[in-house]
Amino acid sequence: MDFTFTEEQQAATEAARAVFSGVAPDAVPSPALVPGSVAEDIDRPLWAALATGDLLSLTLRPEHGGAGLDLIALCLVLRESAKVLARVPLLETCAVAMTLQRYGEQGLAAELLPRVGRGELVLTVGANGRTGHDPAELAVTARLDATGSTGEGRPEDGPGSGPVWVLDGVQSGVPWAQAADWIAVPAHTVEGRTVLALVRRDHDGVSIAEQVSTSGELFGEVRLDAVRIEPRELIETDGAWPWLHGLLVTGTCALALGLGEKVLAMTSQYTGRREQFGFPVATFQSVAVQAADRYIDLRAMEVTLWQAAWRITTGGGGPLPPAGDIAVAKIWASDGVRRVVQTAQHLHGGFGADTDYPLHRFHAWAKQIELSLGPAAAHEEALGDLLAAHPLA
User: Fold this and answer.
1) Residues 361 and 85: beta-carbon distance below 8 Å
2) Exposure letters 145-178 (e unless 16+ CB within 10 A, then b)
3) 3-class SS at 141?
4) Among residues 247, 389, 241, 262, which one has the least CA distance to residue 309?
5) The pTM is what?
6) What is the tens place of the pLDDT at every residue in 27-79?
7) Distance CA 182, CA 95 (A)
8) Are the C-beta atoms of residues 234 and 198 closer than 8 Å to each other?
């Protein structure tokens, strides 16, 4: 079997490294030193550079101006982005775009996706529900109004102009909601079906309250109050939301891997220079053993990430559905990235807590990634349910 990446995937990695090479992790105020969010917007110059480098259109089909690559290529780019703490909704935008491309109304896809690839539109998704502990699709209801209008003030949308969907509910912790143009919102219907709505941030009935993530980034609580959208803006296809959720979880694992690799490299450089009793502390057995343990964590994070991404990309078979591989990857990512940054702080000593040094910022991002879309315990529970439903022979 050939486990090497394709030439196209390797080219995407090199392009990402070139774009991210000029990004400094300390380019904004430290979350440890400022109240509230570290910035009011995403890194717009970086977003433009990603568009210029064709990285926002990486997974779009050629008819939408993209390269037609897959989730594996996206994860390679996300891995590089985490090494510099890139403050852009790359995962959210690409995951929603891939879902719209796969499941959405083709006219809407043709209208939006080329603009996404050019960096003109920012997409995000409400994946945390009302509290972060319950399924996201249960936080919003969607009901069909057969004779309503979208309420957007257009003459053709007057009373009786056609059916619309009406959304009510709250999605909490939506990444960069204030900067997004469209927000993907999972919801449930009165029949108990799960649907996925695409809502403009400035749509009538949408309000956003400020929230701040552990990493200091600006999140939002998105409240939908009788928001009326066109049928083409709602994806009714079974599997659309679980597929999007799987993309998000797997992409989060890629972010954890990239961040962990960068932090371990920082630790290696520091312990190689720091001397005690006339010797670099990296030569001490206790230091070397801890670093080796974290290297093993990273390799486990890597192999489980690519297994999950491969299952999603190819639909390859296995003893469990792809959700099982995704859960395993997130268990390793959550636990592994936490152990990596904790060991890094320990081996850096007091220097690791210095806010003039970027390690504390990586620690904050690691905690955010660890808990995003569920900590390890939540995915262990999900994996247990899958094993119970699919007993292994």
Assistant:
1) yes
2) eeebbbbeeeeebeeeeeebbbbebbbbbbbbbb
3) strand
4) 247
5) 0.95
6) 899 999 999 999 999 999 999 999 999 999 999 999 999 999 999 999 999 99
7) 13
8) yes
